[in-house]
Each structure stands twice: as structure tokens, then as C-alpha cells.
Design a protein that fits this description.
It contains 8 helices and no strands. By secondary structure, the protein is mainly α. The chain has 2 domains: 1-104, RNA polymerase sigma factor, region 2, helix turn helix motif (Rna Polymerase Sigma Factor, Chain: A); 126-182, Arc Repressor Mutant, subunit A (Orthogonal Bundle), CATH 1.10.10. It is globular and about 50 Å long.
Length: 182
């Protein structure tokens, strides 16, 4: 999108066309991000639509937003976490009816999902080559040699990208734990 700030300014004023342009630019990214977190195409579509409806309703608040990209992905993260929490509570309630004690606590489930969200956010912000190498390795299950062949780079370069990506993720998780888990 060439002039995103201009579209956002028009969108804040209620311009349907500007909203459409932002929607078509960001909806696929938001939906894909949600799918990777909750592994459900149907729920991802519902959540993504909810997010854009909320953005439309609260568009006046966007005048204080410096980065629409950061804003929408933070909003997406929060919406997914709320979805996960409510589903976890429902699941625990259902399990408590069927069994005496659930095997995993709500807090453990929440921390696991929050950790996954942080990893996804860190991966999304990586340079494209490093991100692609990491995704091919961790999400597609390819071996380093296969990645090197597909991307036409050396196996050592693949290993370097993976090491840098993993270290970046570890640093972010350590920071998260330091700031939020006590």
C-alpha cells in the first residue's frame, strides 16, 4: 500500500473506500496469523471479521496510532488471547464435569498460548530470508539440506539463519518472562 497514512486519515473520517483498501491489504495477513495460532480456518475467519468490525466501529481512535500494522496485530493478538481464554475456561468447565481434576491449569494453557503468540510475532518481524528459513524448518518440517536446495543457499547459511532466529525468539521469551511472569 503506497500511502497508508492517507488511507487511514480518510478511513477515520468514515471513507468506505479507504476502509476497503485497508481491509483487502490486511485481512489476509490477519487471518493467516490467526490460523497459525488457533489452527482453525473457520474461527480465524470469524475472529478476523470481528477485528475489522471493531476497527470500523472505533475508527476515530486511530488518529493516535503511529503504526497501523503494529496496532492491528496487537489487536489481533489480544482478540486471539481472549478467544483462547474463553475456550480454555469452557473446556476446563466441561472437563471438571467429566473428571475430578483437569490435567492442565488455565494458567499453564494461557502461558503456553501467550508463548506461541510471542514466537509468531517475533517470526513475523524477522527479515524475509531468515523468516522463510525458520518457517520451512519448524513449520514445514524440512531438513537443512532441503531448505538450502530450495532457496539456493548453502547449508551453513541455513544453519546461521536458524541459529539467529532461535536466539531472537529466546531473547524475546526471556524478556516476556521477566516482564510478565512472576
Amino acid at each position: 500500500m503506497t500511502n497508508e497514512n492517507e488511507y487511514i486519515r480518510k478511513f477515520i473520517q468514515g471513507d468506505d473506500e479507504a476502509f476497503s483498501l485497508l481491509f483487502f491489504e490486511y485481512y489476509p495477513k490477519v487471518k493467516h496469523f490467526i490460523i497459525r495460532l488457533i489452527k482453525s480456518d473457520v474461527f480465524a475467519e470469524d475472529l478476523a471479521q470481528d477485528i475489522f468490525a471493531k476497527i470500523w466501529i472505533n475508527r476515530e481512535n486511530l488518529s493516535n496510532v503511529h503504526s497501523f500494522n503494529a496496532y492491528i496485530f496487537q489487536m489481533t493478538k489480544n482478540r486471539v488471547l481472549n478467544h483462547i481464554k474463553s475456550n480454555t475456561v469452557r473446556s476446563i468447565y466441561k472437563n471438571s464435569i467429566n473428571t475430578e481434576e483437569p490435567s492442565i491449569t488455565l494458567e499453564e494453557e494461557f502461558i503456553a498460548k501467550e508463548t506461541q503468540l510471542i514466537i509468531e510475532l517475533v517470526v513475523q518481524k524477522m527479515p524475509s530470508r531468515k523468516r522463510r528459513v525458520f518457517e520451512m524448518s519448524r513449520y514445514e518440517g524440512l531438513k537443512n539440506e532441503e531448505i538450502a536446495t530450495k532457496l539456493n543457499i548453502s547449508k551453513k547459511t541455513v544453519e546461521n539463519h536458524l541459529n539467529m532466529a532461535i536466539n531472537e525468539i529466546k531473547r524475546s521469551l526471556v524478556l516476556f518472562c521477566f516482564l510478565f511472569i512472576q
